[in-house]
Design goal:
By secondary structure, the protein is of the alpha/beta class. It contains 6 helices and 5 strands, in the order ααβαβαβαββα. Strands 2-1-3-4-5 form a 5-stranded parallel beta sheet, with helices on one face. The chain folds into 2 domains: 138 residues, Response regulator (Rossmann fold); 35 residues, no CATH class. The two termini are 36 Å apart. The chain is elongated and about 60 Å long.
């Protein structure tokens, strides 16, 4: 699936609570977006631009029938503050990316629908009850599931049968659930947090 198609689908999913009324009138809907990254990051800006473009293709235009409030936060404390700011604006739905960003949104609201992206383990993080029936006010997309770690290693062994060692590099402040990425043959060498 191409990136643009994915973002278009995401835009449709993010607007599920308000899609029907858009056909009925010019009511302005409010969308909160918590970008769990610094505003100066060029990739994040490009992602947000594509997301906005996808919404526009679905008939949702910021300033016409949509009010999009974006908050940027590159550290956990700022994410918590930004999540509360967005909830206080009483949006119809909030889009959050990253595990820490979604956690901040979960603490800030139990009623406003939250759609997440780029979350590593939505079940293990307590965001959803299950992937096919999330329950609560949170749902979304996850491209990485901790239970897939064993499969990754199996695939690596198929690709490179002589493989003896595998390393995983991660930033523990951006991937707080790294301890869930385990399998029977996994043995952490060390954990640096600097």
């Amino acid at each position: 699936m191409r990136r643009r198609e994915f973002i278009g689908i995401l835009g449709g999913a993010a607007m599920w609570p308000v899609a029907a009324p858009a056909q009925q009138g010019d009511q302005v809907r409010r969308l909160g977006v918590l970008m769990a990254i610094g505003e100066a990051d060029p990739e994040a800006k490009a992602w947000l631009s594509e997301f906005t473009k996808g919404l526009s293709e679905l008939g949702w235009t910021d300033g016409r029938n949509l009010r999009m409030d974006v908050r940027w936060a590159s550290d956990v404390d700022r994410m918590r503050t930004s999540a509360k700011e967005l909830v206080d604006l009483k949006p119809d739905v909030i889009l959050g990316n990253s595990t820490p960003g979604t956690a901040a949104l979960m603490r800030a609201t139990q009623t406003i629908p939250v759609v997440f992206t780029i979350v590593s383990d939505p079940i293990g993080s307590g965001f959803v009850a299950s992937l096919h029936k999330p329950g609560g006010n949170i749902t979304g997309f996850s491209q990485v599931q901790a239970s897939m770690t064993s499969k990754w290693l199996e695939l690596l062994k198929e690709i490179a049968p002589g493989l003896k060692h595998v390393s995983m590099i991660f930033n523990p402040t951006r991937l707080p659930i790294s301890d869930r990425f385990t399998c029977p043959h996994w043995r952490p060498l060390h954990n640096r947090s600097g």
